Amino acid sequence: MFSSGAACERAILAVRVFLFFLTLVSLTTLALSQVPDANPYFARKNTFSVFGAYSNDSSHILMGDAENRKLLEFGGGYGRRLFMNRIVNWQYNGEILPVALESDLVGQSVQTQILPVAKTGPAYSVGQVLSCAVVITPYSYIFPNPTGGTTTYSGYFTQTCSGREWTIGEWNFLPRLKAQPFLIGHGGYMYSTKPIPTAIAGSFNFTFDFGAGVELYRSRTQSVRAEYRFHHISNHQTAEENPGIDNGVFQVTYSFGR
After folding, report:
1. Among the four 129, 143, 177, 249, which has the fewest Cβ within 10 Å?
2. What domains are there in the chain, each with its CATH number?
3. pTM of the entire structure?
4. How far apart are CA 83 and CA 252, in angstroms?
5. DSSP sequence for 21-73
């Protein structure tokens, strides 16, 4: 069973931290006087960017069931301005992730025999598992003896975690300010070198994310973005199993263009 209360608390804490950061930066920028300029907007028509994103944990935020998955991504993006006025700068934004690493929990199982002789076998790997919760599976078999009678074999298997393994549209608001809050979202797909997050979940997965952040302009052509996104990966029932992965991802992006 998954602890939905703990997952909800982690999600609420992450949102509160992000909203505090967003409010602090916005209020600081609004407090600064702006010098009039012939071009008062900090906005580009074409934007190129490089970024890195990381999530240290996954939980059941909205749809995913796979817990304790880490996510590390590096990529680039391109944005094209579609519409702008003094309130909003609406852009098309696409991203490519040539490096996307996701870590899965690896489980092990130990057989403990009670009958006919008490003994414990060596641990052996069971591959990828959904969570680190201890799973105990009892067993009992009765076999006939060649000389007559029967022998009962009984005991239980204990499954635990043994480690982890790694597998290889945007809206900006207040475009006259150097610090601009924004909303962002993407949809797409990814192919991994092995099935994730379990061995029968498939290598082809669909992805989507959405989030918000602050873009800090160093000049009218260069900026740095800090953002928080909800990120989801699942195969949409195209494989035998579809547990899905929900991550809260922090991303930092450097952007440039004209």
Report:
1. 143
2. 4-105+166-257 (2.40.160.20), 106-163 (no CATH)
3. 0.66
4. 24
5. HHHHHHHHHHHSPPPP-SS-----SEEEEEEEEEES-B--SSS--B-S--EEE
